[in-house]
Amino acid sequence: MLDFKSFYLLSILNRFHGERSWSAVYHLLKGKRTSQTIQDGFLFRVHYYFGTMTALSRDELLSAIKWFEAKELIKTINAEHYILTPKGCNELEVISQQYVIPTGLNGWFYGRQGKLFWSRLSLLVQALSHLSRNVRKYYPVIKDETALHWVKRFLLSGSLRKNELVDAVRTELESVCQLLSDLEADVLLQRLSGYQCYGLTLSQMSERAGRSQEEVHLLLQSGLHRMVGIVLERDDFSILKQLLEGTETIGLTASAHKTLTLLKNGLSIEEIAFRRRLKPSTIQDHIVEAAFSNPYFSIAPFVTPDEHQAIAQALAQAKTRKLSAIKTLCPDHIDYFQIRLVLAREGEQ
Amino acid sequence: MNVEKELQKRFGFPAFRPGQREVIEDVLSGRDVFAMLPTGSGKSICYLLSGYLLGGLVVIVTPLISLMQDQVQRLRMNGEKGAAALNSFLTEEERERVIRGLGSFRFLYLSPEMLRSSRLQTALKNIGVSLFVVDEAHCISQWGYEFRPEYLKLAEARRNIGQPPCLALTATADDQVRKDIITHLELTDCRLHLYSVDRPNIALCVEHWLEPKEKERRLIELVKQLEGPGIVYFSSRKMTEQMAERLKLDGILQVGFYHGDMSTEDRMLIQNQFLGDQLDVVCATNAFGMGIDKPNIRFVIHYHYPTHINAYMQEIGRAGRDGEPSLAICLVGAGDDRIAQTLIDRELPDESVVKAVISRLAGGNDPYDIQKLAMDNGASETSAQFLCDKLSCVDNQSDAATLFERVMQDVHARRSVKTAELAKVRQWLATNRCRRKTVLQFYGQQPVDRNGPCCDRCGFQLKAYYKKIGDTRRLNQGIEPWQSRLERLLPRR
Hints:
The structure holds 2 protein chains of 2 kinds. By secondary structure, chain A is mainly α. Chain A has 3 domains: 4-95, Arc Repressor Mutant, subunit A, CATH 1.10.10; 107-242, no CATH class; 254-346, no CATH class. Chain A contains 18 helices and 2 strands. In chain A, strands 1-2 form a two-stranded antiparallel sheet. In chain A, a hairpin with a 2-residue loop joins β1 and β2 (81-84). The longest helix of chain A has 25 residues, at 107-131. Chain A starts with a helix and ends with a helix. The mean pLDDT of chain A is 89. By secondary structure, chain B is α/β, with parallel strands linked by helices. Chain B folds into 2 domains: 3-194, Rossmann fold (3-Layer(aba) Sandwich), CATH 3.40.50; 202-340 and 449-465, P-loop containing nucleotide triphosphate hydrolases (Rossmann fold, 3-Layer(aba) Sandwich), CATH 3.40.50. Chain B is 44% helix and 13% strand. Chain B has 19 helices and 13 strands. The longest helix of chain B has 31 residues, at 400-430. Chain B is globular and about 60 Å long. The mean pLDDT of chain B is 87. Classes of the chains: A mainly alpha, B alpha/beta. The A-B interface holds A 122, 125, 128-129, 132, 136-143, 145-146, 163, 166-167, 169-170, 173-174, 177, 182, 185-205, 207-210 and B 69, 73, 77-79, 90, 94, 241, 256-257, 262-266, 268-273, 275-276, 278, 476-483, 485-486, 488-493.
């Protein structure tokens, strides 16, 4: 019987259909912010899981893969590329009756933001919990100095009085938790600390919930990402929204961000490459990355409508995400850069 | 000036613990002071209260970054806003913020590396430092078990910031180490305060168990019987988890584990649960306990003995800070000697790491890079620190081979010092004589007056430390529904 972690790893490995090596899974789960990882993330619709297992080590993943192989759940199609065997597919289906990948995960967009949000929320709730009992001495659960500073400033600068703030935070948390799954809300709240009320560690929660640590960890993140998404989209969470102050949702790598700024200023790919002392292909990577992470980003400057159509046809024919296979089905003048851009658009369907 | 009143006002303590007042008075008179005060005797009160009375900025040099952050947090918890820490783990921006705000601080904790920065030195000189505190001063001595070469540069740094009076503090230093501290810190006309490392309310006990199964069984028995809260120390991270699990199986439910592989958040949660008496027992590595001040710890059990007698004294010193009878038990098993030797080896870089780091040093020798490089090559934090101390101050002229030779020589020298120290621990574990007298002899001291039990050699009743009231086990509930949890965290008025 597979445990949750194996289920999660196997599900994600399966999403790549053997078109990427296992290290794509590794970089995805570790949250490596590179153009390659983000492109793969969107291509294979796994960007939700970006950075959701930062503690995973290479050895751990490798030994899981060896184990899957030994159990004949996966097989290699060429060096380090794996697909599920019929037995593996069957197993995955059976196990899906028992486990579900939490549906709130949105690692690429909310991973970093969620982390910061969590630090601030934990400190705020802990502070208010103590303040509401007029207790001033306690050990902050989060050690991050920047978050501590932020919460301190927030508490000093607010217009609400102490008790009003406590009520407001409780009300907002209550409403936002109603929009999460009960399980997500349970684990999130169980991890918060307050006056004579101590958050539980992952291992303690895992024991009490009768779920593995990995599952609890993913539930926590799922709840957190969902919460951040809700708070961002709606207008009725004024305090929780403030906790996101100074954080950005952009799913772009810092370098891609710079490239885009220059692009907006009207520079060509070659000019940007020259200016930034990068290879033109790297600049192309950045543009593809932008196309994937922002559905409104226009690819028209790089692909004519005719080219777009030709590539789309090739895509439909190929039924694979392998670029080389797609390329052979396209007219010769079309290059990989263009194919990737169209993939970013058509891949959605 | 009434120092007692200040103590009451600032910290809410009605009276000084032995030694504190004497040290503070000498510091206030503007002289250099060397004080050896046992763990748990409130060393920090000495410089904190002095700082309040002297005014101005107090600089505290301390070797462990985690320790300095805990200190700052504790001060803030105590309502002191003018406390800050400067160390290499801060971001550039955070460091800048501290340096720019120097004038507004009362207590500044520093790692010795930070103090090398001439920019910081100038800033400190301009502001004027009222007291220069060197915590864990034994780190300056080659003979100390925690020798840190960076400490040797402290005297120079002190001169550069205007030679403020110095207070050197340590919990444990024998004669040789004391001499080193005074010489290397260039303490002049120095007042010495040497208090006994003896903690009379802690009874000492060693038990030998040949069979590993027997030792494990005995631990479970002890944890069940003894009045908590307590800490059980292990040398391996994995074992803290396994044994916590094992104890739970035996019905000891309020048990947690703590080690360096856990996330900072999880570690803080365990620490807070323990402080809040939600956990009776924590199975931990020696990373646990530093910088937390829990007065009512009733027992400290060592499942693996430490490699240095100072470390042992520090760890058992976490028990009984409230002065109530407490217990230190060391369980010794057949394989433990080998484990201790492995620990020593892990504290020093091995040949392959030294080679790898030197070859990739490539001219730059930023301390942070060296440490990271060493750790990337599989070195432990302590051994990386060691290598970093050795390499960060070498000139770039020497070639790799010479450098390698020199570092390996140092490694061997350190290993023999450590092995000699380990021998002392083993000697103590094996002694037929009074444990207290034997351990104090290492420090050239005698036991202080006592009226409680002494040790297993002098005879004492383990029963006296058993749980007074019946088993108060709390049932382990499942996950609390979020609605009621929210109500507990932020109750309605």
